[in-house]
Task: structure prediction
Amino acid sequence: MVATGHTAAGLAMIVGMLPVGIAVVAVTWSWVNREEREALADEAAHLGGGDPVAW
Result:
């Protein structure tokens, strides 16, 4: 849209898509944190220690 001269429409499209990008970042961050917690728990289990993540 921006390339065809519809600057306002292109800007509205970009701003409208921002929540999707923010949601993707939030889901990815959650996934990375969960993977890290599981890796630490697996490492502790193999070393015979307790749960490193105390809830």
